[in-house]
Amino acid sequence: MATIEVATATADVPPAESIALTLTLRILGSKEGSTDLQAPANCKGSELKKLLQDVVALEAEAMCLFFQNGSRNSAKLVLDDAKTLEEQGVEDEAMITVRAAEQYAASPESSFLRQSIAKNGTSSYYYAHANEKALPAEHRYVYGGEPAKLESSEAAVEAERPAIAIKTYSWSDEGDFVCIYISAEGEPKALEAARDGKNDEVSVTFETKSLQLLIEDASSSSSLRFALNLRSLENEILPEESKYRVSSGKRITLKLKKRRPVTWSRLVKP
């Protein structure tokens, strides 16, 4: 990739003493595919075209220029001949795309995509492009440091594993507690996996208005998982005073401590 430096003190470009900033521009559509060009920030679009005559196989009058600040996914805007690069918001390392003017007589705002957005609004198929913005400079590049390792812990993989829903259970209001029973008759495979619960086969998470029971027999070759998730309990419970008991091969009992001494007419809200 070639790099071309253009002197700023020419008849076509403002004198060097008036130049506040020099921009490095990536030119797309040059004879060599892509080329870096240095130009003053107070250079007008028409003046930039003249500088590009030696870079692309087009006369200045035959060019249509577009600029993008950031990646190729950022908004592509027409470069105005009468305004300076600085006035149009062209930033250092912006990409300048050169095309034959006859192919781009209409501006991007009159393209099919923009016409569709203007006509159909939020129902337009292309509405996602309606408010395209250039990617902020601080988000375009990351320098230095070791590559960040993506999350690949066993816990993340574990969370993705599906569980068989426990659908058969009973419950009763027993004064200070609401009890839920999962029996071997109703859920034989879940109770088999639970064993006696002494080796972390069973875990229960109590929340104020919900609970989750998870059963897994890690020693089994099939490593089946079973789960009971109850959301929107009828009333609030005290998680720290709620508990569970595993009766090997017979039953799992969940004891939910009521926050208030009220009778529950149902276990969960519809």
Mind explaining what this structure looks like?
This protein has 270 residues and is α+β, with helices and mostly antiparallel strands. Helices cover 11% and strands 29% of the residues. A hairpin with a 2-residue loop joins β2 (22-30) and β3 (33-40). The longest helix is centred in the middle third of the chain and has 9 residues, at 112-120. The relative contact order is 0.09. Mean pLDDT is 79; it is low at 6-11, 105-110 and 155-160.
Order of helices and strands: EEEHEEEHHEEEHEEEEE
Q: Which oligomerization state do the chains in this entry correspond to?
A: single chain
Percent range for β-strand residues: 25-35%
Q: Treating each run of at least 4 consecutive H or I residues as one helix, how many helices?
A: 4
Q: What is the 3D form?
A: elongated
| Main β-sheet, spatial strand arrangement | 1-3-2-6-4-5
Could you give a short description of this structure?
The chain is an alpha+beta fold.
Record the SSE blueprint.
Blueprint: E1 3-5, E2 22-30, E3 33-40, H1 45-52, E4 63-68, E5 77-78, E6 95-100, H2 112-120, H3 154-160, E7 164-165, E8 170-174, E9 177-183, H4 188-194, E10 202-206, E11 211-216, E12 225-230, E13 243-247, E14 251-257
Parallel strand pairs: 1-3, 2-6, 7-12
Antiparallel strand pairs: 2-3, 4-5, 4-6, 8-9, 9-14, 10-11, 11-12, 13-14
